[in-house]
Amino acid sequence: MAALAPPVAAIRVAVRRALTGLPSGGPVLVACSGGADSLALAAATVFVAPRLGRAAALVTVDHGLQDGSAERAEAVATWGRGVGFGSATVIRVEVAGRPGGPEAAAREARYQALTEAARQQNAVAVLTGHTRDDQAETVLLALARGAGPRGLAGMPARRDLGGVPLLRPLLEIGREQTRAACAVLGLSPWQDPHNTDPSYARSRVRADLLPALVRALGPGVVDNLARTARLVAADNAALDELAGTALAAARCPDGGLSVPALRGLVPAVRGRVLHSWARELGALPGALSHRHVAALDALVTDWHGQGPADLPGGVRVLRRDDRLASVRPRLT
User: Fold this and answer.
1) In the chain, what is the greatest distance between 2 CA atoms, to the nearest angstrom?
2) Is 43 exposed, middle or buried (0-12, 13-18, 19+ CB in 10 A)?
3) How far apart, in whole angstroms, are the C-alpha atoms of residue 85 and residue 245?
4) Which helix (H) or strand (E) holds 18?
5) What angle do CA 170, 171, 172 make, to 5 degrees?
6) What secondary structure, in 3-state letters, does 176-240 show?
7) What confidence tens digit (pLDDT) does each residue in 146-163 have?
């Protein structure tokens, strides 16, 4: 028997690790666009899942942003049914009119569709094909935005998606491996023109910045950036745990926070406490920035009688003696 090609073997091992330990019941749901990364993931999942006694389903999202997108999505679903997925469905979404730029709007529409598909099919997990290269690009984009530790942590290997685990099994797998696996398996990936469109920041990072770093610093830079994300994510988890304990200790009976308790915290923990508390009060997560948290922190560490800190979503926080309290916004 011929030896299994290393890229195919590596991806199957990564998928097996991701699926091991999941609860029994519904299928694992693979999000597949037809690109090399998600196609290699789907091929590995439909091989591995049955051998673990699991059902596997496939879903492809048609964003409707390009000519022929409907036909391409149907082709992906047809392929999925042909290779053994229990079901393979197309979900069409509307991107126009959503907040944010086109990348953010498409991502929001896609994850909403995946959440709904997971609920409808009682999926025990959703799998996406993000690779080590995607992780490196994410870290570079976070650096450019000055996003701080949460941004530098990149994409987690596992996160909650509407109550269902979203898994990224290929974060240790390079994009060249997914392409090689597709070639070995005789698969013909779709080349998304958006991936080379210079109007998108990620496309510029992919086409220009990351290759320039590889030329200047060597091929190890991609793995090093991805490793940075893993290390920062571990630090974030530890700090978040400390912040959770500190937030509980700082609470006042009326729902405010004790200034002396906050003042005794190191800045990294205090910032997380204030960020979490602001979200509890109703501050909009997507708009809550470092500037807002710094304004809250000034009420604790640089108090000189200033007025309330205004947070996105109409939330206002002021200092009353030795506690922080939320107040209703002024009526205009």
Assistant:
1) 78
2) buried
3) 45
4) helix 6-19
5) 90
6) HHHHHHHHHHCCCCCCCHHHHCCCCHHHHHHHHHHHHHHHHHCCHHHHHHHHHHHHHHHHHHHHH
7) 888 989 999 999 999 888
> DSSP assignment of 245-268, as one string?
HHHHHHB-TTS-EEHHHHHTS-HH
HEC string of 56-85 equals EEEEEEECCCCCCHHHHHHHHHHHHHHHCC
- Going by C-beta distance under 8 Å and a sequence separation of 6 or more, which residues neighbour residue 314? 282, 329
Return all residues near 263 (Cβ < 8 A) that are at least 6 apart: 300, 301
State residue 99's pLDDT score: 64
Taking only Cα atoms into account, the Rg of the chain, rounded to an integer number of angstroms, comes to 23
Q: What is the pLDDT of residue 98?
A: 66
**248 residue type, one letter:** A
Question: What SS3 class is residue 283?
Answer: coil
- Model pTM score: 0.88
Which residue type, as a one-letter code, is found at position 116?
A: E
What is the CB neighbour count within 10 angstroms for residue 37? 25
Contact 135, 155 (CB under 8 A): yes
For the chain, give percent helix, strand, coil, nearest 5.
55, 15, 35
Answer for the pair 90, 4: CB distance below 8 angstroms, yes or no.
Answer: no
At position 330, the amino acid (one-letter code) is R
The residue with tokens 């991936």 is 195
Residue 272 CB contacts under 8 Å (≥ 6 apart), including other chains: 239, 240, 242, 243
Provide φ and ψ at 62, rounded to 5°.
Answer: -100, 110
Backbone angles phi, psi at 56, to 5 degrees: -135, 140
Cα atoms in the Cβ-side hemisphere of radius 13 Å centred on 315: 23
b/e code 147-179 from CB counts within 10 Å (16+ = b) = eeeebbbbbbbeeebeebbbbbbbbbbbbebbb
Residues 221-265 have pLDDT tens digits of 999 999 999 999 999 999 999 999 999 999 999 899 999 999 999
Return the closest-CA partner of residue 83 out of 50, 46, 129, 52. Answer: 46
